[in-house]
């Protein structure tokens, strides 16, 4: 291995492949084909049986083969992330749409068509590493650019605002949402007293909470959600002129979310649905894409919109500042080893490059400390986590940092101090004009101010923007928020906490508060109108956004019976027609059989985006069988319908739909396999037929 970061840079450059490939990791890959087992120090050995004194005798302390095998095993885990423990990552590349040097000196944005490798890790926040994917939660969106001027990480989320305004509050937030400490229940859920007690006492949480209670909390998949940088950052150009910016990562697949009962059931049936969807899409060559956009604002705009751009609980509505698309990224390569790449990826908001700068957002400022600190902890105290293959920059690293556990570099410069003369002064200090260095925006100022532990008065309106969000949701998604709040609050024990939450909701909307109150058996509240307004914005819902641009990789269950060859051959025909459209059909029958991919004992509506029934299947719905739970085939259809999925049937397959009227939207009865496939594909673009979901009167 031609070790060292510069060696890696050369390999990546010389490979001649798109930067989206992960060839920069090639030098670290270990493949075990046709080789003998060795110890960690390279001695070929037999590690199948321990060394014993006689056939039935005790294992000997001398057995270094046993000892090294076990001591390695005993240390396989590193601490999981204290938050965002559950996640999945993939490689890809970013491509700049243009030369953006008028606004930023960042080299990866310096030329139209310029490509930069990226690694993205998606996550949920509250659950532990083994928790199910479909927890209602904010979702992490941590994006690393391996630029030719060093690594740049945007450690964002799928919701554009955050719960709190000061990093000092983060441990409190996390303690409140994590499982209650006595019994460690519930896992990956906020439906418990401590979470809502904190939320109701910290009204800055309300805005993010409403987003999480809407479809944004339960996306269909990582591919179908957007990302946001959340904080306001700075772009700085070569002349030192700076702009305030907000990042948007807009997915090109279309935004799609599940409904809550569906998400809960899916967690039981397939706890890995999000990571599986991402993996399968990339493995099949259906590479997901996001457009990178920025809202660009002047330094003077910081309090112009009626809120403070340094307050991370606020977003900038697009009516105020449009989003300028600056590039796109594509995820086109799965990891080769989950632990080595995804688990050991260590993102840092403080990983920045020339042309980018921070702002004084107190949450961002606090994060700049916490991530490095947590990585030191996760890497068992060693700062050399930056040298782990997935974390290395693709450019040479030169500084006077030395040694430490797991040091991989062989530093030959013995003058590891600055200033020196004996090494000609190198490594030199780089800055705005020398060595293409990082520099702080010259416009940045600290006001002449006293030292305070106080919240800025410009941060104290916690209700206007949640109301803007609420007003802007279609009624189906408002209902979703109400239902989610009813679920969460009916699962907590304390009436006092429920009342505190309703009082906060009531400052956002009297209607919201009272629709939740009614389900909790609590009295209706009079309006608390100080922050009420009728403004709306666009682009904040997950429902009602029009047809999805892409349905590639969506899953369709085709119900058939092994008792009828016609039913099976028609299922096959439907399957072929759907496959031709880039969908992933699975034929379901009583037993596995040629062309049958799932059984009624294993299949469930939540495993599919749409469900259809082949002809000649009547018996499946009318006769029971010991091969599957009572009523299961009919239940699959009923659930699919109730979860708002497109459903349909050919011929007498219709008999399975005991309670479904053919004239409802998203229900397709036809006499031809091809026609059904066409209709289902069309229906999948709508994804959820929300008119099936009951609304409050
Ligand atoms: Fe994080 N956050 N966070 N966070 N965060 C972590 O770092 C923290 C915040 C986000 O896929 C931790 O490596 C503080 C906002 C993502 O590896 C930790 C504050 C946003 C990830 C940490 C915040 C995020 C993390 C845990 C101030 C969106 C996963 C393990 C209140 C803009 C990254 C780790 C990955 C992870 C601290 C708030 C996003 C402890 C102190 C706001 C996507 O360092």
UniProtKB/TrEMBL annotation:
InterPro entries: Catalase, Catalase_AS, Catalase_clade2, Catalase_clade2_helical, Catalase_core, Catalase_haem_BS, Catalase_immune_responsive, Catalase_large_C. The active site is at 84, 157. Its EC number is 1.11.1.6. GO terms for molecular function: catalase activity; heme binding; metal ion binding. SMART domains: Catalase. One of its GO terms (cellular component) is cytosol. The keyword Manganese does not apply. Keywords: Heme, Hydrogen peroxide, Iron, Metal-binding, Oxidoreductase, Peroxidase. It catalyses: 2 H2O2 = O2 + 2 H2O. Its cofactor is heme. PROSITE patterns: CATALASE_1, CATALASE_2, CATALASE_3. Heme binds at residue 371. Residues 38-426 form the Catalase core domain. The keyword Oxidoreductase applies. Pfam families: Catalase, Catalase-rel, Catalase_C. One of its GO terms (biological process) is hydrogen peroxide catabolic process. Belongs to the catalase family. Catalyzes the degradation of hydrogen peroxide (H(2)O(2)) generated by peroxisomal oxidases to water and oxygen, thereby protecting cells from the toxic effects of hydrogen peroxide. Occurs in almost all aerobically respiring organisms and serves to protect cells from the toxic effects of hydrogen peroxide. This is Catalase. It comes from Coprinellus micaceus.
